[in-house]
Specification:
49% of the residues lie in helices and 14% in strands. By secondary structure, it is an alpha+beta fold. It has 3 domains: 112 residues, Orthogonal Bundle (Butyryl-Coa Dehydrogenase, subunit A, domain 1); 110 residues, Beta Barrel (Butyryl-CoA Dehydrogenase, subunit A, domain 2); 142 residues, Butyryl-CoA Dehydrogenase, subunit A, domain 3, CATH 1.20.140.10. It is globular and about 80 Å long.
Length: 384
Amino acid sequence: MKFENLKSDWMNEEHVMFEDMASKFIANEFVPQAERWRHEGIMDRDSWNKAGEAGMLCASIPEEYGGAGGDFGHEAILSLVQNHQNLASWGQSIHSGIVAHYILHCGTEEQKLRWLPKMATGEIVGALAMTEPSGGSDVQRIRTKAIRDGNVYRLSGQKTFITCGQHANLILVACKTDPTQGAKGVSLLAVETEGAEGFRRGRNLDKVGLKAADTSELFFDEVPVPPENVLGGEENRGFYQMMQQLPQERLLIACGAVGAMEGAVRRTIEYCKERKAFGQSIIDFQNTKFKLAEVKTETVVARSFLDNCIAAHLRGELTVETAAMAKYWTTDLQNRVIDECVQLHGGYGYMMEYAVAEMWTDARVQRIYGGTNEIMKDLISRKL
């Protein structure tokens, strides 16, 4: 899987072993199913259980909560590997790197013990429901509300573009518990979907890319949610909780971008060595060599910056603006690099039977979710 024969400085022996395990697991268990999943628009539900059995879920969650006791480096490696192997559709980064960490860092002890072990095995699939049809990144515009009614909250509203929306059975829903307080009146409520009255899954959305991802609409019609399912056990902490976790989410997106670039450039170099034109391999043409030199250099530089960000995060020093830089810059670069890879493939680069075509379509949304790249620039500019 390695793009360069260099070990990132933040990687220890355990990380190297996990990288090898993850590469083999995805290559053997998921890649052979990927084409069928794309046509069906969803991965098999038991793929989550297989991943759990193989130790691919919640690798960075402490052992006392059912995880493998690793660190963020394990989540970064898995994101890099799956994107390198053209499996960007798998929502494990949301499940393990985001939802599980909301529960770990913001949840009560009872919530951690109740949900995290089942997330590690794949019995529970987690999702985060923030975006609404009327607004994306503007938390103050959230319309979904949870009104206290005796022993429960009545949750009503609609969410869209929700990763793992069809499979998820534990959904952290951003909602207004105090509509008079704007962003300060937001809470995160954990909805356990099995038997939840008033909960409905909408369409598995038809997207440009990420075809195997079950990205969905979700509907809540006075869904009863017990008070013990308020994340952290306290109302109106949701905005703070989201702001605390967003840098890790954006760093994971950057990991996916760099992994995809490495995979696309590797495939393109191999293709250019094999493809013949005018009696020679197309890699022997000066334009091809120069273009490959450019995209390889850009990808190596991106990995170096990403490694620096991962090391900072492992030390607890990753800032909001640096995470925004990583998300915006690597995803912009991902789109440019993979577009060049498509061009170097010629007509075959536009055929979905070639991985670079799918990687090209998958790349486009990276500049949108997790906060658009325009919002990332605004966050960076606040510290100028």
